[in-house]
Amino acid sequence: MEIKKTEKQSRAIKWEIKENNKVIGRAFLYLIYNNLHSEPYGLIEDIFIDDNQRGKGIGTKLVKKIIEEAKNIGCYKLIACSRYSRPQIHEWYKKLGFEDYGKEFKIKLTNN
Q1: Distance between CA atoms of 74 and 20, rounded to whole angstroms?
Q2: Residue partners of 26: CB distance under 8 A and separation at least 6
Q3: What pLDDT, on a 0 to 100 scale, did the predictor assign at position 56?
Q4: Which residue, of 17, 25, 92, 104, is most buried by count of CB atoms within 10 Å of its CB?
Q5: 3-class SS of residue 52
Q6: Would you say residue 62 lies in a domain?
Q7: Cβ neighbours of residue 45 under 8 Å, at least 6 residues apart?
Q8: What CATH number is associated with residue 30?
Q9: What is the pLDDT of residues 66-90, one digit of tens each?
Q10: Are 47 and 59 in contact (CB under 8 A)?
Q11: Backbone phi and psi for residue 72, each to the nearest 5 degrees, phi listed first
């Protein structure tokens, strides 16, 4: 048996919202290709909203922009992950149209 590595080009798009030249919100859309579809799927990652700006709709604006971009690119699905300890975020994702679909498993490869 042989294991062969091949690579497909994936990429990330960073979205930022600035106020007075300071980043108050950001999020990444990762476009990932696999052999199941000719189109990529999207992964939302690293959503950050400045503590002083939370509750003002900035995160919602970012995620809606990412959903729009993923549709325009032709992603066949969009994934967002959240820890079990964040039920308010789970409800927020549901309000934005996401469904609770499965479990995420991870293994830490560094101490960071």
Answers
A1: 34
A2: 14, 15, 16, 17, 46, 47, 48, 62
A3: 95
A4: 25
A5: helix
A6: yes
A7: 27, 28, 30, 81
A8: 3.40.630.30
A9: 999 999 999 999 999 998 999 999 9
A10: yes
A11: -60, -35
Q: Domain range spanning residue 23?
A: 11-95
Q: What is the total count of domains within the chain?
A: 1
41 residue type, one letter: Y
Residue 66 forms part of a structural domain: yes
Q: Rounded CA gap, 30 and 58, in Å?
A: 20
**Distance from C-alpha of 80 to C-alpha of 40, rounded to nearest angstrom:** 15
pTM of the model: 0.87
Three-class SS of residue 55? coil
State pLDDT tens for residues 15-66: 999 999 999 999 999 999 988 899 999 999 999 999 999 999 999 999 999 9
What is the DSSP annotation of 64-112? Answer: HHHHHHHHHHT-S-EEE---TT-HHHHHHHHHTT------------S--
